[in-house]
């Protein structure tokens, strides 16, 4: 149950605090006084989309608080999951603030919380019906939404999953076919380019090695000359480095035992002798290596082709290896395409069958829901003066895949006729504005047992008057007797007279700015005066008193 609503700097409301009681409460006041702003504030604190125009002119921020007595069975698990510390026998305090720069913050039980938590709590606690609830019935999907509210969420989710799987299988087959067509168009080029690439046998570092091979081949004469001269200087010439080092070592060997430094010099020359031998070995390898001039030509050709391929594809050796793998897969796709397409077609057929089965179950569930809703609606419509109007839901499945959606394959329409011999036509074409409004109210009043405990109606009585207005008031009063707290904004004295409590909203100008005040009418005289104002004659207090008495006596 909503216990209290506190509003600061919200649209035209400077500051207002309203306490609510169980049962049915009517919010009344002059047109434009700000009654709907209270409903908007309630929607805001329960997570509705916020824009900066909600902040009152001249203020830096808007703030709304509500105090709610909540059933732990409805919100306990949600709050526990969110880590909110809440004693279940205490009221639940929710607050939301909107800064002038558009930033929004929220609190639950005084602790910071995400706005999505407020929204989730609102879905469990409050049912808000705005001024245009009846217009929603005119949208094409409205009838389906009415039925789906009665269908198990798990079944609707199963249809959505089956639809997504079907679309994915359909796209997979289409993508496979596109890839095959692309590969076939490129097949000749792919095979030639892959053959060239495989002849090159690319690997990391190949470009550098080929460059080295080509440079060595082109300068072979200089290399041999240098190697021969170096080898002669080291070992084969007279004199040579090896002989001179050997003579030095023989001399040092005779005297090194008498001086430490001679021993150190001897060790270093021994190392130099070993190094000189290794260098000489490398020079002999160069001089004795077999040489085939054709190798140079082959290396030059391979280097040129490699450079061209790297430039053509804008990559390096590793990139060429990745391209080769990609091209092989494309060619394999052509060769194994029939088998792959058959498999994809089979997967699509299975996904389609799964969707058909789930969509058919959803259709049957909707038809059953339609029967239950119409059975509950009939007494409500009769009470609202719509005895002569017959209603039915048309649920027509479509086997055309172009009509398939995540919400199923049904075309759902709410049809009506005003006499037994008449044709069924869309309800929105048959009904007047008042009848649309009354149907919207009847749908809410006949909601399932899991309906939120707080129901808020913003001018649900639009388009009605006279005796029908009394019926609307009685219906709202009955809702409040069935375990729900009902708040209704109304311009009709008949509806207001049926309420257990009444709050009037007044707007005055203070220092050139509008100021909104919500005042609970605690005494009967105050309610009679407000009803007289609503009758359009402040002097009609006797008539207003009779209306208030009638509203109290109405048995919903």
Overall description:
This protein is α/β, with parallel strands linked by helices. It folds into 2 domains: 2-131 and 418-553, Rossmann fold (3-Layer(aba) Sandwich), CATH 3.40.50; 174-337, no CATH class. The protein has 19 helices and 15 strands. It has helices spanning 35-45, 72-81, 115-125, 133-136, 142-148, 153-200, 206-218, 220-236, 241-255, 260-288, 293-313, 317-335, 337-383, 427-430, 433-445, 466-481, 493-498, 524-535, 541-553; strands at 2-10, 13-19, 24-28, 61-68, 92-99, 104-108, 111-113, 126-129, 390-397, 410-417, 425-426, 454-458, 485-489, 501-510, 513-520. The strands form 3 sheets. A 6-stranded antiparallel sheet has the order 2-1-4-5-6-7. It has a 6-stranded mixed sheet with strand order 8-12-13-3-14-15, sandwiched between helices. A 3-stranded antiparallel sheet has the order 9-10-11. β10 (410-417) and β11 (425-426) form a beta hairpin. α6 crosses α12 (317-335) and α15 (433-445) packs parallel to α16.
């Amino acid at each position: 149950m909503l216990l209290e609503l506190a509003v600061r700097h919200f649209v035209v409301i400077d500051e207002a605090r309203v306490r609510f009681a169980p049962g049915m409460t009517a919010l009344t006041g002059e047109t434009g006084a700000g009654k709907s702003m209270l409903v908007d504030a309630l929607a805001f604190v329960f997570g509705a989309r916020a824009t900066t125009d909600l902040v009152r002119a001249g203020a830096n921020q808007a703030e709304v608080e509500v105090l709610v007595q909540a059933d732990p069975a409805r919100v306990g698990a949600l709050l526990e999951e969110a880590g909110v510390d809440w004693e279940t026998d205490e009221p639940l305090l929710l607050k939301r603030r909107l800064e002038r720069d558009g930033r929004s913050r929220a609190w639950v039980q005084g602790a910071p919380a995400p706005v999505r938590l407020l929204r989730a709590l609102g879905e469990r606690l409050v049912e808000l019906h705005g001024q245009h609830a009846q217009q929603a019935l005119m949208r094409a999907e409205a009838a389906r939404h009415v039925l789906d509210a009665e269908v198990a969420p798990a079944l609707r989710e199963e249809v959505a999953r089956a639809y997504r799987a079907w679309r994915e299988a359909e796209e997979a087959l289409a993508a496979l076919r596109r890839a095959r067509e692309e590969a076939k168009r490129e097949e000749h080029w792919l095979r030639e380019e892959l053959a060239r690439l495989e002849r090159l046998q690319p690997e990391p570092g190949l470009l550098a090695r080929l460059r080295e091979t080509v440079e060595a081949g082109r300068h072979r004469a200089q290399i041999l000359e240098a190697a021969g001269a170096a080898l002669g200087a080291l070992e084969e010439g007279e004199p040579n480095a090896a002989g001179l080092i050997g003579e030095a070592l023989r001399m040092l060997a005779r005297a090194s035992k008498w001086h430490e430094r001679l021993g150190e010099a001897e060790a270093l020359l021994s190392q130099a002798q070993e190094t000189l031998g290794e260098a000489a070995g490398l020079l002999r390898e160069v001089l004795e290596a077999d040489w085939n001039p054709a190798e140079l030509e082959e290396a030059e050709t391979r280097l040129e082709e490699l450079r061209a391929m790297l430039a053509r594809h804008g990559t390096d050796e590793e990139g060429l290896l990745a391209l080769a793998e990609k091209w092989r897969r494309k060619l394999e796709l052509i060769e194994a395409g029939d088998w792959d397409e058959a498999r994809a077609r089979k997967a699509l057929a299975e996904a389609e069958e799964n969707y058909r089965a789930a969509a058919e179950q959803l259709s049957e569930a909707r038809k059953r829901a339609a029967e239950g809703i119409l059975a509950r609606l009939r007494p409500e419509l009769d009470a609202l003066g719509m005895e002569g109007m017959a209603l039915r839901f048309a649920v027509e499945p479509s086997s055309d895949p172009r009509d398939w959606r995540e919400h199923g394959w049904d075309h759902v329409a709410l049809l009506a006729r005003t006499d037994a011999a008449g044709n069924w036509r869309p309800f929105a074409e048959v009904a007047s504005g008042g009848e649309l409004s009354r149907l919207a109210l009847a749908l809410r009043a006949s909601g399932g047992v899991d309906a939120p405990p707080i129901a808020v109606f913003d001018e649900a009585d639009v388009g009605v008057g006279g005796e029908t207005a009394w019926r609307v008031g009685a219906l709202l009063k009955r809702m409040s007797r069935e375990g729900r707290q009902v708040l209704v904004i109304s311009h009709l004295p008949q509806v207001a007279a049926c309420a257990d409590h009444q709050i009037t909203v007044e707007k005055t100008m203070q220092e050139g700015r509008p100021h909104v005040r919500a005042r609970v009418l605690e005494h009967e005289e105050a309610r009679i005066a407000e009803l007289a104002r609503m009758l359009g004659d402040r002097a009609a207090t006797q008539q207003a008193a009779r209306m208030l008495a009638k509203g109290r006596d109405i048995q919903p």
